[in-house]
From TrEMBL:
<feature type="binding site">
    <location>
        <begin position="22"/>
        <end position="23"/>
    </location>
    <ligand>
        <name>phosphoenolpyruvate</name>
    </ligand>
</feature>
<dbReference type="InterPro" id="IPR001986">
    <property type="entry name" value="Enolpyruvate_Tfrase_dom"/>
</dbReference>
<feature type="binding site">
    <location>
        <position position="97"/>
    </location>
    <ligand>
        <name>UDP-N-acetyl-alpha-D-glucosamine</name>
    </ligand>
</feature>
<feature type="binding site">
    <location>
        <position position="341"/>
    </location>
    <ligand>
        <name>UDP-N-acetyl-alpha-D-glucosamine</name>
    </ligand>
</feature>
<feature type="binding site">
    <location>
        <position position="319"/>
    </location>
    <ligand>
        <name>UDP-N-acetyl-alpha-D-glucosamine</name>
    </ligand>
</feature>
<keyword id="KW-0132">Cell division</keyword>
<dbReference type="InterPro" id="IPR036968">
    <property type="entry name" value="Enolpyruvate_Tfrase_sf"/>
</dbReference>
<dbReference type="GO" id="GO:0009252">
    <property type="term" value="P:peptidoglycan biosynthetic process"/>
</dbReference>
<dbReference type="GO" id="GO:0051301">
    <property type="term" value="P:cell division"/>
</dbReference>
<keyword id="KW-0961">Cell wall biogenesis/degradation</keyword>
<dbReference type="InterPro" id="IPR013792">
    <property type="entry name" value="RNA3'P_cycl/enolpyr_Trfase_a/b"/>
</dbReference>
<dbReference type="GO" id="GO:0008360">
    <property type="term" value="P:regulation of cell shape"/>
</dbReference>
<keyword id="KW-0963">Cytoplasm</keyword>
<dbReference type="GO" id="GO:0005737">
    <property type="term" value="C:cytoplasm"/>
</dbReference>
<keyword id="KW-0573">Peptidoglycan synthesis</keyword>
<feature type="active site" description="Proton donor">
    <location>
        <position position="121"/>
    </location>
</feature>
<feature type="domain" description="Enolpyruvate transferase">
    <location>
        <begin position="7"/>
        <end position="422"/>
    </location>
</feature>
Length: 434
């Protein structure tokens, strides 16, 4: 298990370019299975989850030509789908969430699919019902093998239909879209997720010949086509990384410019950080955060304590709540963080409390932060990263703290943040990989 040793109390200065979006990459790379022609993808993040997904495709016989670390050509013209029944696939796919999204393309192209027990963050119950109910509506049948949590789907041919999703699941919506693009007739998906990841997937599929309308809304209409073709696609910058850098700048009193953020695709993210009192200015596609000694959390208009809660897009993504929580610990004022979607994502606050933060964990979903207003600095400690976003939040806390901290289990951070230690050290941080 690798660790980071972090020297706290240093301010950073300079420019940073966000990586390509992890959660978009997992969808887009799964979609290469939908055509036998070549698909070229740009701005791929060089992170564990994505590299593992690419390895799984290579294991199935997809031709993978890595032009450089960010650009890759894929061609799924000779695929061994039985690879997905093998132990090797089951073990490897257990390391990431994205592998569930092979199922939609497989059903569309080969009329059978497998979903192994997926990996990803252990942040609470992560059900797959939306995926499975959607496939059933399209005409697939499944067998579940409880001994290893494996689903096996078959179909005589998917048929377009109307469906109202039981919840706007991000990976579920992506999976159903990919299944429906080559189904017979028209599929309408209501209560669809519409995160930028999904919008990008739909745009890429349309450029391959799919007929999807309603993109960016929660009602998608998909007219099935017989075949999809090759294409080129560029990933958006990772909005969660962008949010993490905004929080990092505020906590460490750093002056940072985050370059090429695609500001039009960030939704409420900049405003949520502004509500924490963080000054940021957006010029074109760059976000500038000045070094700030003090930032003060807003209250509601009637003076009530501000609440930040997650919500499907265009609400605030749950993936930024841990970062928002950590940033609030050094603000002036109070914040209630309400993590509605996941029930195990706030437990990492015990480490922040050990560092000297004032936080009340009200229940598994809610934590109240009483900002220290920089009157007391956090102190460095030794801790373990429980999940990807808590991991980065602890890294930010450690960078702002007095003294040295050690963060174990940084594989969790490497799942989603590309060379984070090197990139932050280039701006003045002191993070050593042990
Ligand atoms: C690889 C990938 O893309 N992972 C993202 C994806 O995971 P993923 O697609 O697995 O998450 P889902 O969108 O399915 O939902 C996550 C959890 O939230 C619950 N839920 C969902 C919708 C809702 O309106 N109410 C609700 O309570 C679900 O029951 C589920 O337990 O979306 C999550 C929610 O944005 C993000 O945290 C993950 O980073
Ligand atoms: C929860 C996350 O990832 P995953 O769904 O891959 O576990 C995340 O990106 O914050």
């Amino acid at each position: 298990m690798a660790s980071f040793e972090v020297e706290g109390g240093l301010s950073l200065k300079g420019e940073i370019v966000p990586q390509g979006a992890k959660n978009e990459a997992l969808q887009i790379i799964s979609a290469v299975l939908l055509t036998s022609e070549k698909v070229t993808i740009h701005n791929i993040p060089d992170i564990l989850d994505v590299n593992n997904l690419i390895d799984l495709l290579a294991g199935m016989g997809v031709k993978v030509n890595r032009i450089d670390r960010q650009t890759c050509e894929f061609q799924a013209d000779d695929v061994d789908i039985n690879y997905l029944r093998r132990e090797e696939f089951k073990t490897k796919s257990g390391h990431l969430r994205g592998s569930v999204m092979f199922a939609g393309p497989m059903l569309a192209r080969w009329k059978k699919a497998f979903i192994p027990k997926p990996g990803g963050d252990k942040i609470g119950r992560r059900r797959l019902d939306t995926h499975i109910l959607g496939f059933e509506k399209l005409g697939a049948e499944f067998t579940y093998f409880p001994e290893d949590g494996f689903f096996y789907f078959t179909t005589e041919g998917l048929k377009g239909t109307y469906m109202l999703l039981d919840e706007p699941s991000v990976t579920g919506t992506a999976n159903i879209i990919m299944a429906a693009v080559m189904a017979e007739g028209t599929t309408t998906i209501y209560n669809a997720a519409c995160e930028p990841y999904i919008q990008q997937l739909c745009l890429m599929l349309n450029s391959m010949g799919a007929k999807i309308s309603g993109i960016a809304s929660n009602m998608l209409s998909i007219q099935g086509v017989e075949v999809l073709h090759g294409t080129e696609h560029r990933m958006l910058p990772d909005m969660i990384e962008i949010g993490s850098f905004i929080g990092l700048a505020a906590m460490t009193q750093s002056e940072l410019t985050i370059k090429d953020v695609r500001a039009d695709m960030l939704g409420v993210i900049p405003d949520r950080f502004r509500q924490l009192g963080i000054q940021l200015s957006i010029t074109g596609d760059d976000i500038h955060i000045p070094a700030q000694d003090v930032y003060e959390i807003e209250t509601y208009m009637d003076g009530g304590v501000l609440t930040m809660y997650d919500h499907p897009w265009p609400g605030l993504t749950p993936d930024l709540l841990s970062i928002i929580l950590v940033v609030a610990t050094q603000a002036r004022g109070s914040l209630l963080v309400h993590q509605k979607m996941f029930e195990s994502r706030l437990f990492f606050v015990d480490k922040l409390i050990d560092m000297g933060a004032r936080i009340i964990l009200c229940d598994p979903h809610r934590a109240t932060v009483i900002g220290l207003g920089r009157h007391h600095r956090l102190r460095g400690i030794s801790m373990t990263s429980p999940d990807i976003r808590a991991g980065v939040s602890l890294l930010i806390a450690a960078m702002s703290a007095d003294g040295k901290s050690t963060i174990q289990n940084i594989e969790q951070i490497d799942r989603g943040y590309q060379n984070i230690d090197k990139r932050l050290n280039a701006l003045g941080a002191s993070i050593r990989r042990l």
